[in-house]
Design brief:
The chain is an alpha/beta fold. It contains 4 helices and 8 strands; from the N terminus they run E-E-H-E-E-H-E-H-E-H-E-E.
């Protein structure tokens, strides 16, 4: 039997003169006067707790109420620990991105997916580049193909103003932990450094901020 989420009446706070009494193990004892029910609870060293105030007559149960409240607080705390947050991180691309820059971006996406985060991939267009959105779609499809089963396309590429956005989630095959890259890195002109303040961590769906710019 489940106790109401509101604080129940206990012992002398129970106002009914007659109650339906329930044993500590959930067994039905029957309808008793409130005085007899209190006496039985006292004999067992337990509390009398009203668990169904709207019933006719109200249902009360014998239990160790202090222990019950402690166990409930522990369960609630554990449940909060197990709650997962939906974290969305963004990686930006350009339609004229070079192979080395693309590899850097792909590894970044892989790392985020390996950490269990979702990734918003944003293809940004400048000037007349927006007249050829298919070039951006080719880059995003290349990314999806390279990731394979390590990523799931949760939101398909969609043109919004001067950019195409796509959201990826962790796939069925976990992405391997990225190895240290000893190959020459692209110049600062081609790939700007990532500012940790630009990583977006949101509860459920929240606005994302750019992670990096071309």
């Amino acid at each position: 039997m489940v106790i109401s989420t509101r604080e129940p009446r206990v012992n002398d706070r129970i106002r009914a003169k007659e109650v339906r009494l329930v044993a500590p193990d959930g067994g039905q004892i029957g309808i008793k006067s409130i005085d007899e029910a209190k006496w039985l609870a006292a004999e067992l060293g337990l509390d009398l707790v009203e668990v169904a105030a709207d019933a006719k007559p109200p249902v009360v149960r014998m239990m160790d109420y202090g222990k019950f409240k402690y166990e409930q607080s522990v369960k609630a705390r554990e449940a909060r620990k197990k709650q997962t947050r939906t974290v969305i991180k963004e990686v930006q691309f350009r339609p004229k991105i070079g192979d080395s820059d693309f590899a850097v971006k792909r590894k970044r996406v892989e790392r985020f997916l390996a950490e269990g985060d979702k990734v918003k991939c944003t293809m940004r267009f400048r000037g007349r580049e927006v007249t050829h959105p298919e070039l951006g779609r080719v880059i995003l499809q290349r990314l999806v193909d390279d990731l394979g089963e390590r990523a799931i396309v949760e939101i398909m590429p969609k043109l919004e103003g001067r950019q195409i956005t796509m959201v990826l989630g962790p796939g069925r095959t976990p992405a391997p932990a990225p190895q240290e890259d000893t190959s020459p890195q692209p110049s600062v002109d081609s790939v700007e450094s990532t500012d940790s303040s630009e990583l977006i961590e949101t509860e459920q769906s929240a606005e994302t901020a750019p992670l990096d710019e071309e």
